[in-house]
Design a protein that fits this description.
By secondary structure, the chain is of the alpha/beta class. It has helices spanning 22-39, 44-60, 62-73, 77-101, 139-151, 164-177, 194-199, 212-224, 247-259, 276-291, 311-326, 358-361, 377-384, 400-409, 442-447, and strands spanning 4-7, 12-16, 105-106, 117-124, 127-131, 154-158, 184-186, 203-209, 228-232, 237-241, 269-275, 330-333, 348-351, 368-374, 389-390, 394-396, 416-417, 432-433, 436-437, 450-457. The chain folds into 2 domains: 4-233 and 435-457, 3-Layer(aba) Sandwich (Aldehyde Dehydrogenase, Chain A, domain 1); 237-425, Aldehyde Dehydrogenase, Chain A, domain 2 (3-Layer(aba) Sandwich), CATH 3.40.309. Keywords: NADP, Oxidoreductase.
Amino acid sequence: MAIATINPATGETEREFTADDAATVDHKIGEAQAAFEVLHDTTFAQRAAWMRAAAELVEQEAEATARILVREMGKPLAQARGEVLKCAKNMRFYADHAEGIMADEPLDDPTSVGASRAYASYQPLGVVLAVMPWNYPLWQVVRFAAPALMAGNTGVLKHASNVPQAALYLDTIFERGGFPVGSFRTLLIGAREVKAVIEDPRVQAVTLTGSEPAGRSVASIAGGQVKKSVMELGGSDPFIVLPSADLEAAATTAVKARVQNNGQSCIAAKRFLVHTDVYDAFATLFADKMAALVVGDPMDETTDVGPVATESGRTELAELVDDAVAKGAKVLVGGAPLDGPGWFYPPTVLSELTDDMRIVMEETFGPVASLYRIADRDEAIRIANQTTFGLSSAVWTNDPDEQEFFIRELAAGAVFVNGMTVSYPELPFGGIKDSGFGRELAAEGLREFTNVKTIWRA
């Protein structure tokens, strides 16, 4: 794939970039390694000062940066601004809390192991490769980079080929905040070059956010090198609505949960499992609210849903819908690509789904919702857990017993009760099953790329 900015709202190529050759990649990894030799000996206070300075730059430049995101992957401008500012918030969180999270953890009774003192110490690993997707061009990267740098690691980034301007912005932001030259470097390379970077002895670990096939490939290469990896892959998150729920609030939140980022989010709600007692009322509310969304130019402040980011992505989305319709699914709203320039697909709701439809098991990456009628909570769990994914989930009920049941039984990395899945710096983020392994954010994300070293003193 060419490394280029192709505006998904028009289909036009706006800028093309020359890929880094092998010598350039080698030089950038060398810069990151040299920066690590400096960075890991600095104090948390110094790193925090640099991180806060970088966060301030992100905030100052938010409007221009947001417009880059819109042009490269098509998210509505207001959401792009939100993404940029969320990055700054994450950077400040780790600037404030990294030292405490990384503090040595002493054994309460060291004499039990024959020592005068025994403790666990968290120490950085070195250069970490980040392989990142286009759907949140800044956030996906910063949620790794901020904790990694605060831990004393350095990073090299292989970003998606359709967001090169976002990638190059990230190449400079930490250095402009004061971090040593080379602390975070963007590699303008294609997928085929990733293997060689993982195998480079200077690279100590890898993190990937992306598709399941990409995750399997990268994890297998890292495993072959016995290098640590963290995988955040796809999701087909259930959104369960039960009779005691506030239906108006549930339907309003369901729309936002499905179409955020033009429906292109791993943690977007995709399967809506509604109890038969409230199914008809919810279906009407949900379909009406989806139909009322404004689809159009993502630079327009009044737009709710912009284009799908790539032409191939829209084609894949349409194929899933067409397959379901051909096998008997009912289209409540939408259901076909929009005519005209750009890669627009309307908010769509499908019902009467059967297990032979691809959409039942595969991830829909776009504003398409699958609506299921369920008889009881046991059927909800069966359908919710039947896919190979297990990223996040949401359940709407005001019954305490039902809440505890779903918290216990949902096979996912997170359960949100009477709300929608959102990632927060303060909470760990990640999935199970084919949605990946390892965690980002919170204390767990900071410690993922550290050596947990045991210290024993006589």
